[in-house]
């Protein structure tokens, strides 16, 4: 047997097994990227060796055979799969092939338009209506035969039970059942609490929910649906895909409102890229965008090849979940002494980046997920979110996995860890712990705090190991150690000069940023600004009581106690004195007096990107204009400034009737050149 033939056999076996686990068992054993790689390799081998292409090849089939637990439904019109394009070049290649096929069919002179839809990562279903009544629902199955899940589909409130007239005698509507992301997260959390295996992604959770033998179980799962077509558009008199979508919407089916109709392939590529940019904002999972030729007669002329129509393609995004091996669970010591485990994994591509580490939060999180060293684990990364381990793939355990035990002594200084009442996190109580000191200095120098250019995490570690910095005040003595720093490996005069200039510039960052930079437990950037408002100087902060601090916006008893406890430490007070002696600004400056400024008395939330401003700069600008900057939208929010990527905050603001200002108008708003919209205006 040739090498090519052997590889075809191997890939076929791998894909058949993967299809069975994914489509039938709803328990994937490989991630999407690996599966797609196998499929593309098999297709390439079959193209270069036509004699090895078999009619039953995975490249010519859709999904897997239906499970025997459900009655079979034969689709009157096959439910085909889609070919994939990864990136603009492959999309352009599909378009060239489409034009060539049109030319061969004698319709080369037609102006073709397109429809771009989100590719919902759910379970494809077919809904049959006879005389306007929903009579049957089926999964796609292998594309020819699906599973009868009518009873379970009846539990989804979005699916119409009857159609308003006029309607054809029979029509089959097609769509995708999915689990909203927030519901998926809650669902997996409950399964972990119950000691059950987690689902790898919302698609598998939706499939598992829809294929329950007891519809009452399905009814407890918050499934949703988007519809995108009918099996035979001629039955509803539609000869364009946009007409089909309009018919679906008119009959009460959920149709995604953001579907677009680009006029040419360049606009199609831009539309696909916009969906990828928006991906992290959506409450449903998409793994790509679907591009379809709009005209029905062109679709029919193009036909299909193998398992896929020629007139449509899936523009695939980088997968946000992957499966890899958990090598170890080391433990970091944070600036407040918290011991935080994290996953060290074999490198894997997730969301367009290579991931080797992921957060695990705390030791109870590890125990709740049932992780063992050597496990195959599901890793998730959406948008710019830090990678997380969802859970183990229990079905792939070999018996060689090993249990993990949380250390009972600090890995940095050896001090016995302690448990604080009411907290999950274990902590190192040693204030002199070197790991805590390094983390505190790194936090102080970070962008959200004092933003000291040139003093990154690695540099802090170097200077700490050399003994030049032991606390944050030592940073401002580094100008006296210039020669020692220049002598360090990788340092030259210009680099040192830039560091010292960055340190000098940080002295004027402002009182609220200094408070945040001190690393007081429970005090983030917004809280630090609120504290600066009620204690506008270091002297005022020293004298502030817990009651005084509790009057700050968003500061409760726990946070106030934490600040008071921090200020009761002689070491912390000494650090503040040393910072003042070295010229660091220790008072509130440049803030509009109470009741003054264009945003006086208004509570403002900022979401999405604001051109020319970092998030912290935008918040400070709100305060300087007399307003209060908060993180979350509520009934107390007076105004939302929304830029690209506004996401859920924008949706919530619209629901609550909170006025919204476009981020492009933010400078005019701050300058008082734009009238401030009020709730009454929005309501009217």
| CATH class designation of the largest domain | Alpha Beta
Approximately how much helix is present in the residues?
25-40%
What would the average pLDDT be, to the nearest integer? 85
> What is the alpha-carbon Rg in Å?
30 Å
Whole-Å distance between the termini? 77 Å
What is the chains' assembly state?
A: single chain
Low-confidence stretches: none
* Tally of strands: 24
Biggest sheet record: 6 strands, antiparallel
- By CATH, the architecture of the largest domain is named 2-Layer Sandwich
Query: What is the CATH fold-level name of the largest domain?
Result: D-amino Acid Aminotransferase, Chain A, domain 1
The SS-based structural class is alpha+beta
CATH homologous superfamily grouping of the largest domain: DNA ligase/mRNA capping enzyme
Provide the number of structural domains. 6
The 3D shape can be described as globular
Q: How much strand content do the residues show?
A: 15-25%
How many helices does DSSP assign? 25
């Amino acid at each position: 047997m040739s090498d090519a033939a052997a590889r075809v056999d191997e890939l076929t076996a791998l894909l058949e097994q993967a299809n069975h686990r994914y489509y039938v068992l709803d328990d994937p054993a490989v991630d999407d990227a690996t599966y797609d790689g196998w499929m593309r390799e098999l297709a390439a081998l079959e193209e270069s060796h036509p004699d090895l292409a078999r009619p039953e090849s995975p490249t010519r089939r859709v999904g897997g055979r239906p499970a025997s637990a459900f009655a079979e439904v034969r689709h009157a019109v096959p439910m085909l799969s889609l070919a994939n394009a990864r990136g603009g070049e492959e999309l352009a290649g599909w378009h060239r092939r489409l034009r060539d096929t049109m030319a061969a069919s004698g319709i080369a002179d037609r102006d073709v338009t397109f429809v771009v839809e989100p590719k919902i990562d759910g379970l494809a279903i077919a809904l049959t209506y006879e005389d306007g009544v929903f009579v049957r629902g089926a999964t796609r199955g292998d594309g020819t035969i699906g599973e009868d899940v009518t009873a379970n589909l009846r539990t989804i409130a979005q699916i119409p039970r009857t159609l308003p007239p006029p309607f054809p005698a029979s029509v089959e509507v097609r769509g995708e059942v999915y689990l909203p992301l927030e519901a998926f997260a809650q669902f997996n959390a409950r399964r972990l609490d119950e000691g059950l295996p987690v689902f790898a992604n919302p698609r598998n959770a939706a499939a598992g929910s829809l294929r329950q033998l007891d519809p009452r179980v399905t009814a407890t799962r918050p499934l949703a649906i988007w519809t995108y077509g009918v099996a035979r558009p001629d039955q509803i008199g539609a000869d364009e895909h946009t007409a089909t979508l309009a018919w679906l919407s008119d009959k009460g089916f959920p149709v995604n409102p953001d579907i677009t109709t680009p006029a040419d392939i360049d606009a199609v590529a831009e539309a696909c890229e916009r969906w990828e940019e928006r991906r992290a904002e959506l409450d449903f999972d998409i793994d790509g965008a679907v591009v379809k030729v709009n005209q029905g007669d062109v679709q029919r002329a193009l036909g299909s090849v193998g398992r896929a129509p020629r007139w449509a393609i899936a523009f695939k995004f980088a997968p946000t979940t992957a499966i890899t091996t958990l090598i170890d669970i080391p433990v970091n010591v944070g600036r407040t002494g918290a011991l935080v485990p994290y996953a060290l994994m074999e490198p894997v591509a997730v969301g367009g980046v290579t991931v080797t580490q992921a957060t695990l939060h705390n030791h109870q999180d590890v125990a709740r997920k049932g992780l063992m060293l050597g496990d195959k684990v599901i890793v998730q990364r959406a948008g710019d979110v830090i990678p997380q381990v969802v859970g183990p793939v229990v079905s792939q355990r070999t018996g060689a996995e090993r249990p993990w035990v949380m250390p009972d002594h600090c890995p940095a200084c050896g001090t016995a860890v302690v448990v604080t009442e009411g907290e999950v996190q274990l902590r190192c109580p040693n204030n002199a712990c070197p790991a805590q000191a390094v983390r505190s200095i790194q936090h102080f120098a970070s962008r959200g705090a004092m933003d000291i250019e040139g003093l990154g995490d690695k540099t802090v570690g170097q200077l700490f190991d050399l003994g030049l910095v032991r606390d944050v005040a030592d940073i401002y003595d580094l100008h006296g150690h210039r020669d020692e720093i220049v002598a360090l490996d990788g340092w030259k005069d210009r680099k040192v000069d830039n560091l010292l200039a960055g340190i000098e510039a940080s002295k004027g960052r402002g009182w609220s940023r200094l408070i945040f930079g001190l690393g007081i437990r429970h005090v983030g950037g917004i809280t630090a600004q609120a504290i600066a408002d009620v204690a506008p100087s270091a002297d005022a902060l020293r004298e502030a009581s817990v009651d005084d601090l509790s009057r700050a916006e968003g500061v409760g008893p726990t946070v106030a106690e934490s600040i008071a406890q921090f200020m009761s430490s002689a070491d912390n007070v000494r650090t503040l004195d040393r910072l003042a002696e070295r010229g660091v600004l220790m008072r509130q400056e440049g803030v509009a007096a109470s009741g003054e400024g264009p945003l006086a008395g208004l509570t403002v939330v900022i979401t999405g990107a604001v051109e020319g401003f970092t998030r912290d700069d935008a918040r400070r600008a709100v305060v300087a204009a007399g307003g209060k900057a908060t993180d979350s939208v509520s009934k107390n929010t007076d105004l939302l400034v929304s830029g690209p990527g506004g996401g859920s905050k924008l949706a919530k603001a619209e629901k609550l009737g909170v006025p919204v200002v476009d981020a492009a108008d933010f400078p005019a708003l701050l300058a008082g050149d734009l009238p401030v919209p009020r709730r009454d205006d929005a309501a009217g």
